[in-house]
Every structure is written in C-alpha cells, then in structure tokens.
Specification:
The complex is a heterodimer. Chain A is mostly helical. Chain A contains 16 helices and 6 strands. Chain B folds into 3 domains: about 35 residues; about 170 residues, M75 peptidase, HXXE motif (A middle domain of Talin 1); about 160 residues. Chain B has 15 helices and no strands. Classes of the chains: A mainly alpha, B mainly alpha. At the A-B interface, helix 1, helix 2, helix 4, helix 6 and helix 8 of A face helix 1, helix 2 and helix 15 of B.
Chain lengths: ~400, ~375
C-alpha cells in the first residue's frame, strides 16, 4: 500500500521531493511528514510584495481608472439622492448612463454603475435602485420642496428636536440616499470585487492568455498593450476598494488630495479601528498584492487563495455594519431621536441588502437572497415602515445577523 | 477502513502539495475513491461524441432542413397568391421551422461557426430600417454583416407580422409585386436554405468523423468546444437574449422590444420552452425526435466522475433546469405583455435560469476539467 502511494506521489507531484527511505513506517507518520512539507512549500511560493506596484520593462502595469470613476459616481449619487433639486431624469442619467455629473471627467469617462449593480445575484435587485431613485425624485424631493414635515406615512423632511440632523424620507421613513449608497457598497463594490473580478470564472477565463503572455491593455499614455487580461481584472477588483485612495499603501489616502468618504474603503477603515479587527486593511491590501504577484508568476492556486482571503475579509465590513446600525438605531429610538434612528435604519437596510454578495469562510454568502429579502421586509413592514420599528425588533434582528455572520464587535 | 481513511488524508494533502497539474490529482482521487488497486476505465468519450453527432446534431439539422424547405414552399404559395389562408399557412410553417431552429442554434461549431450561422438565422431585434431599405432599393448583399439583422427568422417575423397594422394591409403589400416584399421574402428564404445546406453538408461530409474522433481533452478538442458552445449558448442565446436583455437586466430598464419574435408577439414563450427542451435533451443525451432513445451524455459524464457522490451535480442541474422551465411556464405567452405588466416575474425567471448558468459554467466545467474558452470583454 505504501509503495503504491509513493508511486502516486512521485507521478503526480513533480515539484515535491519526498524521500521514502523506510517502507515500514506506519501510514500515519507519513502523513505528518507530508503535511510538514506542505507548509514549507507554501512559504517558499509566496513572497508578497511590500506594495501594490507592478511593472513590466520598467513601466507600471496597474491602472483602474474605470473603478475610480465609478466610486466617484457612487459618491455623487449619494449627494444627488439627498438634494431636493434633483430630478428623476438627472439622477437616472447619473446612475444608468453615467452622465449628468458636475464633474465633467465622469461624464466623458464612458463608465456607468447601473449595469454593474448586483450582477452576480438576483436580477430583481438592480431595479430596486431605480425604484429608490424614482421615489426620491418624484415623491420625497417635491415634498421637501413644499416644506412638508415628514412623519409616519408622510414623506418630507424631519429635523431632530435639537436641530442636530435633518433627514429627507419617504412615507415609510426611508432615507433613500443612505439606502442607495450603502446598498452600492455591497451590490456594486463588494459584488464586483468578490463575485466578478476576483472570481475563479472571471480570472480563469483569462488563464490561457496569461500563460502565453498575451497583452491586451496598454498602460496609460501608451498605445502598446502591456498588461494581461488577468492582471487587469485583478487590478479592477483592487480599484473598487482602493480607487479613491492610495495605490501604494493600505487604508485611506491623504485627506489633502482627496480620499474615499462614502464607499467600501471608508467603512473598511472604520472596521480597522475595532479591537478585534485591527490590521484588517493591511491584511486585505497584502492579499491583493500577493495575489497580483501570483498572477505574474502564473501561480493560480496562490492567486485563488489570496482572492479567498480578500473575499472573507471584505465581507466582514458588510457583516459588521449591518448589525451595528441596527443596534445604533435601537438606541436612538429609545432616546426618541428619530432623525438619527431613521438615518441608522436606512444604513442598516443598505448594508443588509449587501449581505447576499458576501462570502464567508465556507465560500457561501452570510445570507441568501431570500433571507436578505425577509430581513428587508421585516424592516419595512407596516404602513409606517421604519417609523414602526421598535428597539426590541431591531436588537433581535441584529442578534440574528450576529448569529448568521459569526461576527461580533 | 482505517487504511482507506489514511489514503484519503494523504490524497487531500496531495492537493495541498502544489502539484503541477490539477487533473492528475483529481484522477488519483477518483480512482482511489473506488479502489486503489482497481484500474478505473475511462469515460467513453467516443460514444458520447458519436451519439451527439449521429443522434442529436445531424438529425436535428436534417429535420430543420426539411421544415425549411416546406417554409420555402409555403412562402412561394403565399407570395404567388397572397390571401388570409396562405398567410396563415405560412405563419404556421414559420413557427414550426422556428421551433426546429431552437434545437440547433447551440451547435455553433464547424461551418456553422465559420459562416456565422446563428447570427444570420436568429439575431434579434431585426433591423427594420435596413430591411425596409433593402426592400425599397432592392439592392442588398445578405452575406454582408450589415445585413445579418435583416435576414433569418427575425426578418421573417417582421415580414409576416410587422410590415403593416393588420393582415389585410400585410396581404395588400404582398399583392403588389412592385413593392418587392414578396421578392425579399423569397430572397431571405433562399439564403436560409443556402446557409443550412452548407452546415448540413459539412456534417454529412468529413466533419462528422473528425468531430467524433477528437476525443482528447484539449482546448481544441470536440468535447471541450461543444461544452463551451453549450454553456455559451445557455448563457447568451438562451438566458440573455430570450430573457435578460428584454427584462432589462443589462440596461437601465426593461426593453420589451427585444423579445424573440417581437412582431408575432405570442410566440416568445413557445420558442423559449422549445429551446429549454433542446437544452435538456442535449444535457441528458436524449435523441432528437425520439424521447425513448438515449445515449451517453454530459449527465453520464458527470455521474461517471461523481460515481461516489450522493448529491449529484447532474441532478442539481436537471432540477434547476426544471425550476427555470416552471417559471417560464408561469409567464404570459407574450413576453412583451409580461414585461410591461409584471417584469418582476420575468426577472425571477431570469434568476432561475441564471442559477443554472452558475452550475454549468462553474461547477460542471470544473468537474469536467474544461476551461472556459470565452471571457467577458468588459475590461474596464
């Protein structure tokens, strides 16, 4: 038996050199030897670079301008969905056509985000964003323009008693810019990174080209292709996180030159401040670097291992924040601070939507599409929607999410 | 038993050991799961390819060709004598032929691929402006790619249902030969026959043997190409074209004018269901035109690899195909009405079909150790 196994080992693993001196060693001992070998091998293969910087013949092969543009669009939509002057045509153009932004460079970028929303999951999710846009521009904004004070079942604006916050909400108390913006963190950014660009299907579809050093994309300012498809896909995944920040260092970029204040990286950095998750930004950044290096080295198992780390770690942002805002809202309701409460429930609602795009350590999302819909229905239940929620309901849901995600602060 | 478990542990560690080839490792696992001393015979790829060629692909093309010739006859009868009766007969035959087409669109291989067969037979929506220009000028080249959307079933759909408000007006247009509608219809029919003959003769010639004999597992071997074609068809021709695009999955909102057989309207569901049957038959190895005759199939191939797995991928695929079919059956026969009145149901149907895409494109191809030979081009 042992002899047979050693033959198999020798036949199949050309890279691994295992000596079989003693055929009488029990099988179990051999196992231990092999496992030790495995660890050594792995360490030898991975040499993560210090920073996300890759060149070919001295020229950088990294760019993700499309992702930076889309993150700027997501940021601008968040503002537009809180602006009482917004019209349906205008916001619809921003979302679905990538035009109508005050930043002209976005209008001419050729990029848009509407067709990138929730692409890995149910086709019923993207139309929700269109509905929110319609709802805000045709119901909430006109109500605000008519100075209507929002209350249960009435759309308008609602200001906290101490004047600390004003929210513009629909008849169910939905602060739609929060729902849309937090929704995009999951349904656009996390989904595009985990389920599209870093997915096995996407990357392995470009395997042959990468093996053959076929270049498809030029670097900026050059006409000659210098970058393989697989390299670029990975960069695009990176760009959905780091696109408004610094390519060469984890975390948020320098405030003086602008940085993300509304998207995935912004919230990831909040998680990085939690006691249990200190260093998560660097873990993700390093995994991006190591995975990209693995692609250059044509080591696809290593690439997928790093992709998996990124998926699991990034998912935590959605996992933590969906619970956090529910608990926060519960506390606000108890204090009677309804503007803050509605604001927080809307954030939770958007993050919960994103739970279906996550990927836990077992490779599955924290919640399925159907489970997400159940939570969203519970949150919006009743004619008053968010206004009808009680602290107990919200805390119970947060506890359920803590259970589903296995995450607690 | 203890030894068996140990072997499994070792084999698992083998995977971790950074072997140079995935396939080698997998083979070892499969063989060992059965019995390490017993030599596992290979799946009979030759028989599967032979069944595909002789019992599915060639018979379906032949059957299509027969109906296409009838379509030509009915088109001649109608154009030489346009009246409500000949129009109805022609429409019926158009639908019959269109249904047959649903069985061969996925075989985008060999000459079919070279001559862009599927793009010329069934690209939709039709380019109505171009068709009308062709008809009025009567100066066109159907082999030019600018005319791909002005020929085939989609153009026929427009010619049969879309050129005027009602049947009387449609018949009137064909009654006046100076308007060229009749000649254009016949030109399109001839082209459909011509293209089909190229594909048919290719299969009847040497191509059949070279297809069947290409049993290896390489990027250019028959099985790999056919599996890729099948998955690509499922993802693009079936999922996206028939459901996703009209439901607005890839655009800002629904596009009901993108349904298949747009002008005929009521045929979109029938055609989609026929395509579903063709997909199920190919996957399960059911002979064309004879549900009782079966042969080696993708399902058998998967089951062969998963002989020791109880939750079989093939069963999950069949269940999901059935789930998709159930959703399609719940839709309005006219997808245009469905999309306008309740697009949510259309989107849920898309979801059910999309679930099968994942099973086919990710799980199945990985299991069969076949690489996807097409990638989305949206590198931005």
């Amino acid at each position: 038996m042992t002899l047979l196994l050693s033959i198999i080992l020798l036949v199949n693993c050309t890279k691994t050199e295992i000596e079989y001196r003693d055929v009488e060693v029990p099988v179990e001992t051999i196992i231990e030897k092999i496992v030790t070998q495995t660890v050594t091998q792995t360490v030898n293969v991975v040499t993560p670079p210090e920073e996300y910087s890759f060149t070919r013949n001295g020229v950088s092969t990294v760019y993700y301008t499309g992702q930076s543009a889309r993150l700027k669009m997501a940021t601008a939509l968040k503002s537009a969905m809180n602006d009482k002057a917004s019209t349906k045509t205008n916001v619809d153009n921003m979302f679905n056509n990538g035009t109508g932004f005050s930043d002209e460079s976005l209008n001419s970028s050729g990029k848009k985000i509407g067709n990138k929303v929730g692409t890995s999951g149910s086709a019923t999710v993207k139309p929700l964003f269109d509905e929110w846009i319609t709802e805000f521009t045709t119901i909430v904004a006109p109500a605000v323009n008519n100075s209507i004070t929002a209350t249960r079942t009435i759309a308008g604006s609602y200001t906290e008693a101490d004047g600390s916050r004003t929210v513009k909400v629909n008849a169910k108390g939905f602060e739609l810019n929060q729902i849309l913006s937090k929704g995009l963190i999951g349904a656009l950014q996390v989904d595009q990174i985990i389920n599209t660009y870093l997915s096995f299907t996407k990357l392995d579809g470009a395997k042959q080209d990468n093996d053959d050093d076929i270049y498809h994309y030029p670097t900026d300012g050059s006409a000659v292709p210098y970058i393989t498809k697989m390299e670029h896909y990975w960069d695009e995944g990176f760009g959905y996180l780091q696109g408004l920040d610094n390519q060469y260092a984890p975390g948020l970029g320098d405030a003086s030159i602008g940085r993300d204040g509304a998207n995935l990286n912004y919230y990831l950095n909040k998680i990085n401040g939690q006691e249990k998750e200190v260093g998560i930004t660097k873990r993700i950044y390093d995994a991006f670097s190591a995975g990209r290096a693995a692609i250059v080295a044509k080591d696809y198992e290593e690439r997928d291992r790093q992709a998996n780390i990124i998926g699991v770690e990034l998912s935590k942002v959605i996992g933590y924040k969906s619970q956090y805002y529910l608990r926060s809202a519960a506390g606000k309701i108890e204090k009677g601070e309804w503007a803050d409460a509605l604001h927080a429930i809307a954030e939770a609602y958007g993050f919960i939507l994103g739970l279906q795009y996550t990927k836990a350590a077992d490779g599955q999302p924290y919640l399925t599409h159907a489970e997400v819909n159940e939570h969203l229905s519970s949150l919006s239940a009743g004619d008053g929607g968010f206004w009808d929620r009680t602290p107990t309901e919200l805390t119970t849901m947060a506890d359920q999410l803590q259970q589903s995600t296995g995450l607690s602060e | 038993m203890k030894n068996l478990i140990s072997i499994k542990v070792i084999l698992l560690s083998l995977i971790l050991l950074n072997c140079t080839s995935d396939s080698d490792t997998n083979d070892v696992i499969e063989e060992t799961g059965l019995n390490i001393e017993e030599q596992q015979t290979e799946f009979d790829r030759l028989s599967m390819l032979t069944f595909w060629a002789d019992n599915i692909i060639i018979p379906s093309i032949n059957s299509f060709y027969v109906e296409l010739n009838s379509l030509n006859e009915y088109a001649s009868s109608f154009t030489s004598n346009p009246n409500p009766s000949t129009l109805t007969q022609l429409r019926d035959q158009w639908l019959t032929t269109y249904k047959k087409w649903q069985h061969i669109e996925m075989f985008d291989i060999g000459v079919a691929e070279e001559i862009y067969f599927k793009n010329r037979m069934n690209i939709f929506p039709a380019n109505v402006e171009k068709i009308e220009n062709n008809i009025s000028n009567f100066d066109f080249n159907l082999d030019d790619s600018v005319n791909f959307a002005s020929q085939g079933f989609t153009a026929f759909d427009y010619l049969l249902f879309g050129i005027a408000q009602d049947d009387d007006e449609i018949i009137a247009k064909y009654s006046d030969s100076s308007q060229n509608y009749d000649s254009y219809m016949l030109a399109i029919t001839s082209k459909m026959i011509e293209l089909t003959i190229s594909v048919k003769s290719n299969w009847e010639g040497s191509y059949r043997d070279s297809f069947v004999e290409s049993t290896e597992n390489t990027a250019t071997s028959s099985i790999n190409i056919m599996l890729n074609d099948f998955v690509f068809y499922f993802e693009k021709g079936y999922r996206a074209n028939k459901f996703g695009i009209p439901a607005g999955v890839f655009s800002g909102g629904p596009l009901p004018d993108r349904i298949e057989a747009y002008n005929g309207e009521i045929y979109s569901q029938i055609l989609a269901l026929e395509a579903t049957t063709a997909i199920e038959n190919f996957f399960n190895g059911i002979a064309y035109g004879d549900p009782n005759k079966t042969g080696l199939s993708i399902k058998n191939y998967l089951d062969f690899i998963e002989f020791d797995v109880s939750d079989k991928l093939s069963a999950r695929i069949n269940n999901q195909l059935q789930a998709g079919k159930n959703k399609i059956n719940e839709l309005n026969t006219n997808f245009k009405i469905q999309i306008k009145e309740n697009n949510h149901e259309m989107l849920l149907t898309y979801d059910a079909i999309q679930s099968t895409v994942i099973l086919l494109k990710v799980d199945m191809l990985q299991k069969l150790n076949v690489s996807v030979d097409y990638a989305d081009a949206d590198g931005d």
